[in-house]
Amino acid sequence: MRKQYTNIKKQTDIMNIIIVDDDRQAAEVLKKKLTEYHEMNVVGMAHDGKEGLQLFKEAMPDLLFLDIDMPDISGIAFLERVESRPGNRCRVIMYTAHSRYMLSAFRNKAFDYLKKPINDAELRTIIRRVCLDNNEQQHIQSAASTPIAPTIIGDGISRRNDGKYIVYTNAVDFRLVDINDVGLFAYNSDLRVWELTLAGEKETIKLKRSVNSDTLLTLNDTLVRVSQKHIINISYLMEVTDNTCHFYPPFNKLQNVKVGRFFRKKLIDRFSSL
């Protein structure tokens, strides 16, 4: 039986959540952890895919924690149905004990991925990312009603009124970039340009030569310089071991992002404040 949920009036700083997991104990543990965050309001739980789809339809949540390995409908199939719904803006966090499902989850547009048993630090990072994304989406919706000209950030980068950035790669070519898709800016000393690593892109994007590090650091407070050659999106930073940054998916394959000794303390302070 699906647990009864309370359909509260949505507030700008509170997100309604549902949990779909056939493991009742795991669902209760996750619910308890989520209640520690005032931004999170768990409005319902379902314990199989069929009930979960019905709950999703009724609750219209802002955030869904979805188990992948369920008996009637797999989490991947569930995600495909959810993503195909017109006007759907729900962020989906896939969680499971099996990492082999990670790639399928991201290919089907999951917002993030959480492994069982749940690590509190990883959950905290995901909640922070969700809150940042929620705030940005609210800003976009507000700005959409008041069209304004793009804001010039620097030579080669401007910000549209929907919060996205127009990034020029040369005098005439440009690319639209969402800051949440940015994993890394790396300086190519041979070409004397900064290169951008984006989620879902196999190749880096070379920026105009006029774009400098000061301009990049003003784009968003999630961007932190860790060396002379690297600026990271700290939202994706998982850990630093042997003075090397390791990242959450989809940037978990980034290598050789070293932390310079002059930047180490600032990075630690910034990471600790998340």
Structural overview:
It is a single chain. With 274 residues, the chain is α/β, with parallel strands linked by helices. It folds into 2 domains: 15-143, Response regulator (Rossmann fold); 151-272, LytTr DNA-binding domain (OB fold (Dihydrolipoamide Acetyltransferase, E2P), Beta Barrel). The protein is built from 7 helices and 16 strands. The chain has helices spanning 24-34, 49-59, 75-83, 102-107, 120-144, 213-217, 264-272; strands spanning 15-20, 40-46, 63-67, 91-96, 112-115, 151-154, 157-159, 165-168, 174-177, 182-188, 193-198, 205-206, 223-225, 230-233, 237-241, 244-247. The strands form 4 sheets. It has a 5-stranded parallel beta sheet with strand order 2-1-3-4-5, sandwiched between helices. A 5-stranded antiparallel beta sheet has the order 12-11-10-14-13. It has a 4-stranded antiparallel beta sheet with strand order 6-7-8-9, with no helix packed on it. A hairpin with a 6-residue loop joins strand 11 (193-198) and strand 12. The radius of gyration is 20 Å and the shape is globular.
